[in-house]
Every structure is written in structure tokens, then in C-alpha cells.
Amino acid sequence: MAGTCKLFQEMLNDPEVWTTVSVDKYQWHEDWYGFDEGKIVEFLQKCKEHNNPEIIYREAIQDFFVKNDDEAPKNPRVAAMAGHKEASYLVGLLGLLNPNEGKEDAMEFLCHLSKTKKLNRQACRDSIIN
Fold first, then answer.
1. What range(s) does the At2g35280-like TPR domain occupy (predicted)?
2. Which of 17, 75, 97, 111 is deepest in the core (most CB within 10 A)?
3. 72 pLDDT band (50/70/90 cuts)?
4. 5-39: pLDDT as tens digits
5. Domain coordinates of the chain in residue numbers?
6. Under CATH, which number does the domain 34-129 receive?
């Protein structure tokens, strides 16, 4: 569509589109796709280049739970600051478990979610488990 319509071409080049587009229906990580699924990988990489909060969150979860990266606890915070609600929930819980990292900051994330009524605890738990 971008090849035939100037409006779609402009939208395709708008960073805001790549930052806010939903990637929920795609698999967990771009590395899980085979060579024949190049368009999906290209789409996920473009989202990553524009700091899509869901992509940041997915990588943070993988780094935290799979890779045991020393910097991993900081990564969910980046996604939370970008507005990702599951990341905010995770940062809040981890902050309460480790008060040295800032209990007040953790409570701020959780209270913000509670005030905006965007917190579905079960959905957040399911997201982390998946």
C-alpha cells in the first residue's frame, strides 16, 4: 500500500507508528522465526529500531530470566518508562522485593497503574509466564 499511496508512505516512515504498533500477535522474539518468515522479522526489527515498548519488554524478560545478564534488571525499567504496563508491574514487584533499589520508586509504578485502572494483574502475570 505504501508503494501506491503517499499517505501510507508517510505513515510507514513515521517513527510514532513503529513505536506504538501492536506486536502482540507475533511470537515472543524475532530470533524464533525461520528464513522463510523474513517479512515478520523485518517488521519486528523495525519496531525494535524505533524502541517499541513491547519489543523492549520482550528483550528485557529474555535477558532477565534466560540470559542472566547483570544489566537485565535495568531493562524492564526502560520498557516501563516507555509506558509498557506489564513492565511497570514487574518493576514495581521487583522493587518491593529489593527495597535497596528504591521502594518508593516501585510503589510509584504500581500506584500509577492502579490509578489509571490499566492494571490487569492476571494478564500481567500471564504475560510474564508466557
1. 39-128
2. 75
3. low
4. 788 777 777 888 888 888 778 776 666 667 667 77
5. 34-129
6. 1.25.40
